[in-house]
Amino acid sequence: MSKPDTTRVEGIEAGKGRRFSLGWWVVGAVGLLFLIIPFFVHDPYFLHIFVLMFLFAYLGTAWSLVSMAGQLSLGHAALMGIGGYTSTLLFMELGVTPWLGMWLGAILCGLVGVIIGYPAFRLRGPYFALTSIAFAEILRIYVENTEVGPLGIPLKAAMGLLVPLKGHAPWLFQFDSKIPYYYIAFLMMGAAVGLSFLINRSRSGFYLAAIRSDQDAAESLGINSLKYKLIAMAISCILTALGGTFYAQYFRYINPERAMGLSMSVEIALVGVVGGWQTVLGPTIGSLLLSPSGELVRAYFGGTYAGLHLFLYGLLLMVVILFLPNGINDPLVRAFKRLETKLGEAKKVRKETSPPGTRRRDKP
Amino acid sequence: MSFELIASALIMGLMLGGLYAAVSISLSLIFGIIRVINFAHGAFLMLAMYASFWLWYFFQMDPYLSIIIVTPLFFVFGYAVQQLLIRPMFVREKALVVEPLGVLLLTAGLDLVLSNLALLCFKSDYRAVVLPMASTTLPLGFLDLNLPRSIVFLLSFVIAGVLYWLLNYTEMGVAIRSVGQNREAAALCGVNVYKIYSLTFGIGTAALAMAGAGMVPFYYVNPSMGLSLGVKSFIVVVLGGLGSVPGALIGGLILGVVESVTAQFVTATSSVIFSFLLFIIVLFIRPKGIMGMLEA
Prior knowledge:
The complex is a heterodimer.
Chain A: H1 3-17, H2 22-40, H3 44-68, H4 76-94, H5 98-121, H6 127-144, E1 161-162, H7 178-201, H8 203-213, H9 215-220, H10 225-251, E2 253-254, H11 256-259, H12 262-275, H13 282-301, H14 308-323, H15 329-353
Antiparallel strand pairs in A: 1-2
Helix pairs in contact in A: 3-7, 3-10, 3-12, 3-13, 4-5, 4-6, 4-10, 5-6, 5-10, 7-8, 7-10, 8-10, 12-13, 12-14
Chain B: H1 3-34, H2 41-59, H3 67-93, H4 101-122, E1 137-140, E2 143-146, H5 147-169, H6 171-181, H7 183-188, H8 193-215, H9 225-240, H10 245-262, H11 268-285
Antiparallel strand pairs in B: 1-2
């Protein structure tokens, strides 16, 4: 083996050996904090804000999987709506528990995602963004104006669907307190972030990174870009549909204007963009910042100034895109890296100054 | 299903299609040259219609006359949006990204800002101008054509024609087309690419405002109207071929006819499903649209 090769391998080994990563420790600590919050906070409104935060972190993470393939979706609300409507209709009409119905909605959304993605992903340019927004808007207009859909499905038009109340019925995805919802939303968020992390670390994740930075170069290396975009889209759709069921069960109500509207699509995208789209933790960070503030603005000004929170969201979206294109995640990661190196250096100094043989690691 | 019913549906469809075309041409022009889909397109249209409406409301100005004020006003507006908001993105992403997704998001944010600003300022009331000529009809055999709708139908051809002349028979048009074909080569030939971008955005927005003012006599104005017409114009430009001005004209007419004819068989709201199906089918079998990439 030639000399430059060995040094590179050594470099990688050295990097792998460095287990100390401040960022992930902070993530773990914040996660633990979230786990114990319901033991101290009992106010339903605060718990509600946390549930929204987790839900949007989850939805944003699912959304960012598509943007990791270099595509922009402005129609993710439609998928959420399909998921929520499927599980709720199955429950209302056939008595199927939403725990089961959510998976049917997810499968349906996965198919829808592939059907929409296939023609649009083959093309360069903004075709997918256009398709996604057209799909979502047309689905919303259709549901908003259709009392009884094909096969006699009672879509109930703009009125939306009320999930029949069954009191405390865990088997039917209904709880009488916010705490189970809190933990379910937290688990969903954790699972989505974990999945996104695994995808990013996998071969497919590297393929996606290659496709989004230079599709021609990726394809010249034999990557089937259409296939990997479709895989990312399908996973994203499935996750979003599950989020839709959670939304319907949590609010016990789902209507086309909110659950399929453009404002929901933009909110999902915004969480991802502000935090840092195309990153694993970005959407979660974005949601931690945005969901509570958005909820407060809506609660205080929603009645008198309808549209104010969307105006602010739009403004924020523009400011972030113009001045912080990689989201808040980017400067955070850099700050952590700096802190890490500093701490790492301090550790090294300590190691070097302490007498040999006093620590286990120094043994040969 | 009688012949007359189908024929009148066809003609109504062409009228509706003329409206779609008038609204979509500028979106296609802007994409053809700048390679940016302006997601705030619908919001721009809504603002132009409000401008025309307020001119009528406060100064009793005829909406058709207001075209001479609204058009230059929105040229300046479009020029400023490109110069102040979109240009910095191009400068930054010049070497990095060929298809800037960031610009799409920026215009989506602009759409939210403008349409909700309109909601905050003008409230969500539906507003309409009251003109005696709005209910005038032109008798055409078995059916009567609504005069203002016919005017918009003609206006779409006027807009397409003016843009065609501007692009093909003026020096500025040659510069604009050269930038659309290859911006590096155009820059090497001494074309100020960013200035051309701003000009194109301004011209496109002005053409949109012209269509908006023409629609005011028969179309209700409200802050959320931009979205539905915006989505329609996205469908139209893909149907016709992204970047092609004649394509947008033909795509608009096709969409109008399809919507109007299918509405004879199913409810009007279900017919929007057909327009989306048409969109998906065109993406499948002829992704470059009916006219392909003419200007590109």
